[in-house]
Amino acid sequence: MAPAPPHHVVVGGSAAGVAAAFGLREHGFTGRVTLVDAGTDLPYERPPLSKPSGGHPAPRPIMPSSAYREQGIELRLGVAVRDLDTGTRTVTLDDGDRIAADAVLLATGVSPRRLDIPGRGLDNVLVLRDIDDARAWAARLAAAGPVVLLGGGFIGLEAAAVARRRGLPVTVVEATALPLGAALGPELARLVVQQHVAHGVRFHTGRHATALHGAGAVEQVELDDGTRLPAATVLVGCGVVPNDALARRAGADTGDGIRVDGHGRTSVPWVWAAGDVAAYFSPYTGRVQRIEHWDVASRHGRAVGASMAGVHTVSAEAPYFWSDQYDRRLQMFGRARPGDRMVLRPDAGPEHFLGFWVRDGCLVAAAGLDAARQLRAAKPLIERRIPVDPAALADPSVDLRSLVRAGTAAA
Ligand SMILES: Cc1cc2nc3c(=O)[nH]c(=O)nc-3n(C[C@H](O)[C@H](O)[C@H](O)COP(=O)(O)OP(=O)(O)OC[C@H]3O[C@@H](n4cnc5c(N)ncnc54)[C@H](O)[C@@H]3O)c2cc1C
């Protein structure tokens, strides 16, 4: 009797898991591929959930259902993986089913960090991670009443912009002195905050919520300085925690996420990991870390899928993310860290922004507001570690593509 074809099971059907399943096929894996996700919807894109949509949120599929059929990717939706048995190489689902697998990829992502303060269980205290959350948020946007956002990260600020567009009073409570300051650096973060202030958003920075009050539904948010903010809706955006419990129980190395090598292998040979849940070395930061961006998760998933198919692949593109707030698009390639030299390109104008971060003579990150063309031009400078003259970056008359050409010729 011919041996059964190898079976790879992907846990988590989002950016990384879907890309990995298709990546397996693209790179010649002809065995069985099963994609398991706890959600009941066909895998869908998360970024639109916090952006203006103007109607009832509907999941936007990453791939049409026909693509899974054509590629022979079996979908098991609405069922979570409960356990991995490394001894028998078996995946146990929470409906009791057990699947034999030759390899398992954990693309289980992250979950919103929950509040740990009195009143956290009141009605209309929301998070925004999946389509059900987005529907609950849309329902609250349709209701009147003040919105308080706990956490001034990207999702919180995108939600602030959407709520202001609906004419709702919006207050952002942020623990640090400057929302997005760590991610974007002070110059760009200040510009983003100014934009929100101009649209009527109020900020309480350097503060955190100590209690939520209300009878049934939330009515007030109490801050650590005693301030009480009126609230009909509270959206909590206080960071995330990696869904790494399966890996931990299977004995894989975990820290902040599941530790993987450059190809996505965990310390347990049978188990791989990709996407937001995976912590790996990034040459762009020089550190082992998780990156929580859609494009990065998708590219990482595809590369790990390729490696699982035997085509060893490293996802080497510069990290990229975008964020839409009001009618502006913020984008960033690469990663900056404290101590990098910031170079601003002055022609961007008071409301625009084009900034670069330089480390050891090379461009390590570039960010802009409504500056897509220039940022695309800067990307190869980051990826190829082309030495750059900060004065040329700051000079609006210098075409960034000419720096790439000059650097490539010199190499
Ligand atoms: C509202 C919102 C807006 C965003 N906007 C942007 C943006 O504008 N730009 C950007 O770059 N990034 C954005 N992101 C971040 C981006 O969506 C994530 O980086 C990306 O979704 C990570 O993909 P992932 O596949 O690693 O994990 P996730 O998307 O977290 O998916 C993990 C999947 O695993 C499933 N799962 C978990 N545990 C199990 C289990 N035990 N069994 C079965 N299934 C399981 C979950 O159901 C989930 O579907 C946004 C995120 C959110 C929530």
TrEMBL record:
<dbReference type="InterPro" id="IPR028202">
    <property type="entry name" value="Reductase_C"/>
</dbReference>
<keyword id="KW-0274">FAD</keyword>
<protein>
    <submittedName>
        <fullName>Pyridine nucleotide-disulfide oxidoreductase</fullName>
    </submittedName>
</protein>
<dbReference type="InterPro" id="IPR050446">
    <property type="entry name" value="FAD-oxidoreductase/Apoptosis"/>
</dbReference>
<dbReference type="InterPro" id="IPR016156">
    <property type="entry name" value="FAD/NAD-linked_Rdtase_dimer_sf"/>
</dbReference>
<dbReference type="Pfam" id="PF14759">
    <property type="entry name" value="Reductase_C"/>
</dbReference>
<feature type="domain" description="Reductase C-terminal">
    <location>
        <begin position="320"/>
        <end position="404"/>
    </location>
</feature>
<dbReference type="GO" id="GO:0016651">
    <property type="term" value="F:oxidoreductase activity, acting on NAD(P)H"/>
</dbReference>
<dbReference type="Pfam" id="PF07992">
    <property type="entry name" value="Pyr_redox_2"/>
</dbReference>
<dbReference type="InterPro" id="IPR036188">
    <property type="entry name" value="FAD/NAD-bd_sf"/>
</dbReference>
<feature type="domain" description="FAD/NAD(P)-binding">
    <location>
        <begin position="7"/>
        <end position="301"/>
    </location>
</feature>
<dbReference type="GO" id="GO:0005737">
    <property type="term" value="C:cytoplasm"/>
</dbReference>
<keyword id="KW-0560">Oxidoreductase</keyword>
<dbReference type="InterPro" id="IPR023753">
    <property type="entry name" value="FAD/NAD-binding_dom"/>
</dbReference>
<keyword id="KW-0285">Flavoprotein</keyword>
